Every structure is written in C-alpha cells, then in structure tokens.
Amino acid sequence: MKHQRRELNVFSMSALDLFASGMGAFVLLAVTVMPFFPNTETSSQRENMQAELESAQSRSEDLEDLVMTLSQATFRIPTLDIVICLDITGSMYGQIDGLKAEISALSEVLDKISPSVGIGIVAFGDRRYRQPIYDLDITETTNMTTIQSFVDDLTPGMNDPDSNLNSDGPEAVTTALEHATTLSWRSESETRFIIVITDNAAYPDRETAAITAATSFSSVEDQHVSTVRAQIRGFADDDQEALRFLKELAEAGQGNFVDAAGGESILSSLLLAIL
C-alpha cells in the first residue's frame, strides 16, 4: 500500500516552540504515526493506542524521558531505512549544526518504535564544487558511533577550494538524489525514505531529472522521497522557486513536504518527513 503523501506546513501549528523540545517530537509522532498501523486494526484498538500515546505524552517532560517512555509503547512502524540528503552550502550552517546535535536523538526515537533502522547521509553542495557529494552508506543505528562521526565532520562547503564560487541559488540537489538511490539499501527494510533538506531548488536544467529520479524511486512500494524547506539564512525568505520545486519533488516521490523555513529543529523536521 502506498504511503499517502501529505503536505505539512509547520506554520499551521499554533506553538512553533513545541518543535524544539522532546515533547514536540512526541506530539508530531503521535499525530502522524497512525498511517503505519495495520488496516486490520479495529476502532477500539486504535482508540487504545491513542490513549497509550496520550498517556506517554503526559509522563514525558524532555527528550530523554520521552525515549524511555516510548520503549514501553506497543505501537511500531516497519523496519526502516532513511537517507538524509543535506545541503551543506554556506547558508545551511544552522541545519548542519542541528543534525550534529540531534542525529543521536532521532536514532533513539526511531529505535524505540521500529525493529531496525538504517541511516545514510548524502551531503551535497554546489555542482561547481570540486567534490559536490560526500556520503555515508546506509548504516544500522546499532553502529551510531559511525553515523555520529560522519555527521560531526560535516562543515559548510566542506573546505572545498571552489566553494566560494557558490554565488547562485540552485544547488546539486539532483546529483544528491540520484546518488542516494544507489546506496546499499538493506534488503530487510520494509519502508525507505530519501529526505532532501535544502533552502534552494535544483539547477533548472536538472529539475526534470530530479523529478524523474523521485518518481522512479517511489514507483516501488513503500519507497518515498520527502523534502524539507530549510530556513534561509542571510537571504530573502520568499524563494518561491525553492518552495515550488520542493513541493513538486515531494509529490513526485509520494512523500511529505515540510516547510521548516521558520527555523524548526532538524529532529522535528525529519520526523514529519518520515511519518
């Protein structure tokens, strides 16, 4: 069964500061996890699950407590692989720092609700960089040290001597997406997500290729491409081209579009993109 695509705009929620906390992550999880429950669940069973989620919420005050509480929950999502395609050009320093700080928490939350989780990273810059792509192949969260080490080494521009050439808006989004599809997806993963996080669109001459790649990837059951529009730092915050492209890419990938241009946390953005 195909995952239903949803367009999610964080500004539709009344308390934006909720996203920065562990409680915010829980609320997002509680609201969006229901599509993963089997269709055979009865109405009564679903009500019991919702009651369990609400009870966990009332007992959780921070992220550490939330992770402990989720370990006692009965709801689960399928074995999961995700690949995070993260723009690492100069305007994305906030998202890079956020991923460093929150990748471990993301792993902890997902590990509590899925029997097995694999995480891959494709860090991408501008196509004019000498090395536009840096990657970590899909790694099980049981080896979190490797994942955290890779993320900790990410820097804006990755010290590429040509990174100062990145004076235009578009980035190597298509190259990153195409590369993500070639990683070593685990045979046991039942659900697969590519999540593109950027504040810019792909190069115009490569947009069609990006849509094609997303369409092809999502043509396989339970494979999806989601997008996160990151906060634009130091630039105009009304980039309609980026907004249009990222919505179209998520639609083609049968995934979720998350508008995090208000500066919401990486953790909450990734949960919204997956669930």
Question: Any overview of this molecule?
Answer:
By secondary structure, the protein is of the alpha/beta class. 40% of the residues lie in helices and 17% in strands. It has helices at 22-32, 43-59, 63-70, 93-113, 144-152, 173-181, 207-218, 240-252, 266-274; strands at residues 7-9, 80-87, 117-124, 133-140, 191-198, 223-229, 254-259. A seven-stranded mixed β-sheet has the order 1-7-6-5-2-3-4, with helices on both faces. The longest helix has 21 residues, at 93-113. The radius of gyration is 18 Å and the shape is globular. The protein starts with 6 loop residues before the first strand and ends with a helix.
Set out the fold topology:
Layout lengths: L6 E3 L12 H11 L10 H17 L3 H8 L9 E8 L5 H21 L3 E8 L8 E8 L3 H9 L20 H9 L9 E8 L8 H12 L4 E7 L10 H13 L1 E6 L6 H9 L1
Parallel strand pairs: 1-7, 2-3, 2-5, 5-6, 6-7
Antiparallel strand pairs: 3-4
Helix pairs in contact: 1-2, 1-3, 1-9, 3-4, 4-5, 4-9, 6-7, 7-8
The H-and-E topology, N to C, reads as EHHHEHEEHHEHEHEH
**Sheet with the most strands: spatial strand order:** 1-7-6-5-2-3-4
Strand composition percent: 15-25%
CA gyration radius, whole angstroms = 18 Å
Structure summary, number of beta strands? 7
Distance between the termini: 15 Å
Largest sheet: 7 strands, mixed
Helical content, roughly?
25-40%
Please report the number of helical segments.
9
The geometry reads as globular
Secondary structural class: alpha/beta
Q: pLDDT under 50 segments (min length 5)?
A: 9-23, 25-43
Mean pLDDT: 79
